Amino acid sequence: MAELIQGEKVYDAVIVGSGAGGGMAAYVLTKAGAKCLILEAGDWFDTAKDSTMFVWPYEAPHRGAPTPQKPNGYFDPGYGGWELPGEPYTNAPGSRWVWWRSRVLGGRTNHWGRISLRMGPYDFKPYSRDGKGFDWPIRYEDLAPYYDKTEEWIGVYGTAEGLENAPDGKFLPPPRPRCRELFIQRTCRKLGIPCIPARRSILTVPLHGRPHCHYCGQCGRGCAVSANFSSPTVLIPPALATGKLEIRCNAMAREVLTGKDGLATGVSYIDKKTGRELQVRGRIVVLAASCCETARLLLNSKSPLYPDGLANSTGLVGKYLMDTVGADGSVGYFPIMENMPPHDEDGTGGLHLYMPWWNYQKQLRGEMPFTRGYHIEFGGGFDMPGVGMFSGSQRILGGGYGIELKSGVRKIYGAFMGFSCRGEMIPNDYSYCEIDKDRIDEWGTPVLKFHFKWGEDEIQMAKHARETFREIIETAGGEVLTNFGPENNWGISPGGAIIHEVGAARMGADRSTSVLNPYCQAWDCKNLFITDGAPFVSNANKNPTLTILALAWRTSEYAADQVRKGNI
Fold it and tell me: Are residues 419 and 301 in the same domain?
């Protein structure tokens, strides 16, 4: 039996999760005057004090290698990974889904690549264009003002290009491309592939009291000066400054509580430090625990009114789970870049250029073997240790020892580049998560079982991407060192591997075919809102975080307005 602490206050909003969706909900709701509580399953993380951005690898234990306590390496902020002790999940026979969980204040906003792409008009109405998947109940025009506000607040660099279905935004100046990036950009021009400045939430000029990036290149360690976007640096501090936000870390949400009227009354959670199960009360509940964790919470929130789980009268919670199509690991070696003189390749931590999808019209004419599209990310050069530095390097070096070996390594260092695709997955009936009736976690809560299958469109997309990588490398005078073929479905990533899972509680205009209304409010429970990736109806070839942030802002404004009007 969960324990309700005597004298516990009733919050205006209880928010589960502190990442992109939870942090934005806290920011908007506290600014609207609401008293909020965030429940975070991980530890506290203060980037100013806890970041390791200036530590050299040789200064870290085991040179920063992964350990059981830090499965993603010493430098990774907080704690997270594919397998967490005490938190199992399962796969149905024949399925493979890998589930990455973050257990730290700010969630995945501490770890992500900060690629911030707007979904375009086609992406919100994909079924209307090609008859596959589903249309969103909103249009690009409905979300565009919230993209604007989000970009203006968090800071996103980029350039206005006027490209089809790649909307321009409120951009900061982009950093200059590196030498190797300009080399690939020149090759892409020959092939008719757009290669433009990336769009990333890293400051190139000061903004709202935050300094611009100093180009240390360690964005993945948590930025100690708040020059890049994360929830603990950009969303949570101003929410705390209102005096209306409390945060409880190491609080593993277990169930959304409901009353006899069917409304949410609060959340039951496990205090991971003590093992006690506690309850908190809220006038509204906002779930932003990450797509699959939110689905798990809903499915485990059973009561006489909700025997199949909260907000699940349609049976759609957990259904139509999607990830981004990934085709990583294609590496090229470029002799023209041998013996490059040492030079400054500093910049933001990651790519300065990328290639948005460019074949929309060919698809409409039926000239492509798959539907939807992908974008290309690439990197390498003098990065430490350098993408593909040891992929085939022994053959290129041709042996050697001592001075000869060192000379050979200096010759080839910086001449490798790797290419990856990030593509759209079309939702299908075979990809979903459900409660595993035979497994529980260490706190006795039932865990998720995953079912997953890539469709033929996604496999053909990976094939096309691999062929495009080869064409780029060879046109640039390079040699393909690693690539993938039909024997392994063109090296398409396992489901979940790109960590872009969305869609397990989709929004819709019809309550009989969706879990949430167009404002991410549960049809079955009007004071329950979801602000993570679960409401997504499709998963465009754009990384989802910017859209999660914009949707969360829109949803939180709507929730505050509904409370003011007395509708909740």
Answer: no
Q: How far is CA 40 from CA 23, 100, 260, 416, 475, in A?
A: 11, 16, 27, 41, 49
Q: Are residues 560 and 467 in the same domain?
A: no
Structural domain for 485, as ranges: 159-197+325-423+455-491
- Those residues whose C-beta lies under 8 Å from the C-beta of residue 403, and which sit 6 or more positions away, are none
Phi-psi region of 489 (alpha: psi -120 to 50; beta: other; left: phi over 0): left
Same domain, 524 and 472: no
Q: Give mean pLDDT, residues 83-101.
A: 96
496 occurs within a structural domain: no
CB atoms closer than 10 angstroms to residue 394: 11
In the chain, how many domains are there?
A: 2
Encode burial over 398-413: b for 16+ CB neighbours within 10 A, e otherwise: eeeeeeeeeebeeebb
The Cα–Cα gap between 508 and 526 comes to 15
Residue that the structure tokens 């990336």 belong to:
198
Residue 83 placed within a domain? no
Tell me the C-alpha distance between 429 and 549, whole Å: 27
pLDDT in tens, 210-246: 999 999 888 888 899 999 999 999 999 999 999 999 9
C-alpha–C-alpha distance, residues 339 and 547, integer Å? 42
288, 293, 295, 296 alpha-carbon torsion, rounded to 10°: -140
Q: What is the pLDDT of residues 494-506, one digit of tens each?
A: 999 999 999 999 9
Question: Do 132 and 173 share a domain, yes or no?
Answer: no
Same domain membership, residue 287 and residue 340: no
Neighbours of 385 (CB within 10 A): 10
Same domain, 243 and 184: no
Dihedral over alpha carbons 299, 302, 305, 307 (to 10 degrees): 70
My answer on whether 507 and 483 are in the same domain is: no
Spatial separation of the C-alpha atoms in residues 408 and 393, rounded to whole Å:
10
What span, in angstroms and rounded, lies between the C-alpha atoms of 554 and 520? 9
**Crossing angle of helices 20-31/545-564, nearest 10°?**
30
Q: What is the CATH number of the domain that holds 103?
A: 3.50.50.60
Residues 240 and 369 in one domain: no
Query: Is 483 in contact with 525 (CB distance < 8 Å)?
Result: no
**In the predicted structure, residue 388 carries a pLDDT above the cut 50:** no
Q: What is the pTM of this model?
A: 0.96
